[in-house]
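ok, trying the design again with the full structure, not the truncated one.
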C-alpha cells in the first residue's frame, strides 16, 4: 500500500492545467494504484493526479468507498461528452480541509475516457457518481470548489484556508 501526500490549498500544483496522458505505461498504472490507496486512506470518493503533485489527466473515483470493486474507476484523459439537468450539491475536497460548500453541478453526465489498458470507456453517471466525476475533472483544469462560489464567499473561504495552512506549517 502506497499512501501519497495529498496537497492542500494553496499548493500551486492544484492550480495547473494538467497535460493529457500520451502513453499509458506501468508508471501510470503504479501511480493510479497509489492514488487509490491514498484515496482509501483519506478516506474519500475521488482523487485527481494534481492532488498528489502529478500534472497529468488521471483520476480515480469510487463512490462505494471500497465496498464494491465494480465501482472503482481509473480514468485517463476523462472528458464530459454531454450533461443534463442541474443540481445544487454540498461538496468537500481532500485538498480543502474543513470546507463544505454548495456548488452547481449537472445531474447526469456521460464521460469518455481511457482505462488503464488504453481502451476507450464511457460512463453514464447520475447523481453522486456524476457529481464526483465533475469535481475530479475540474481538478484536472486547476479548478476547485472555491471557483464555483461567488467572490465574497470565495474570499472568506480562501482567507480561512490560508490561515489554516500557515498554522499547520
Ligand atoms: Ni477535490
Amino acid at each position: 500500500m502506497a499512501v501519497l501526500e495529498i496537497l492542500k490549498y494553496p499548493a500551486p500544483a492544484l492550480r495547473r492545467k494538467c497535460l493529457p496522458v500520451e502513453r499509458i505505461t506501468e508508471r501510470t498504472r503504479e501511480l493510479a494504484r497509489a492514488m487509490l490507496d491514498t484515496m482509501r486512506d483519506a478516506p474519500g470518493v475521488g482523487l485527481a493526479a494534481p492532488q498528489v503533485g502529478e500534472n497529468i489527466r488521471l483520476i480515480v473515483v469510487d463512490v462505494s468507498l471500497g465496498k464494491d470493486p465494480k465501482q472503482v474507476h481509473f480514468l485517463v484523459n476523462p472528458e464530459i461528452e454531454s450533461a443534463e439537468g442541474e443540481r445544487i450539491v454540498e461538496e468537500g475536497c481532500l485538498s480543502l480541509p474543513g470546507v463544505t460548500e454548495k456548488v452547481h453541478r449537472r445531474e447526469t453526465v456521460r464521460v469518455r475516457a481511457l482505462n488503464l489498458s488504453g481502451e476507450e470507456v464511457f460512463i453514464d453517471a447520475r447523481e453522486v457518481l456524476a457529481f464526483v466525476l465533475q469535481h475530479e475533472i475540474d481538478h484536472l483544469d486547476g479548478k476547485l470548489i472555491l471557483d464555483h462560489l461567488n467572490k465574497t464567499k470565495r474570499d472568506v473561504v480562501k482567507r480561512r484556508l490560508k490561515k489554516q495552512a500557515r498554522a499547520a506549517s
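Keeping the full-length input from now on. Residues 151-168 form the longest helix (18 residues).
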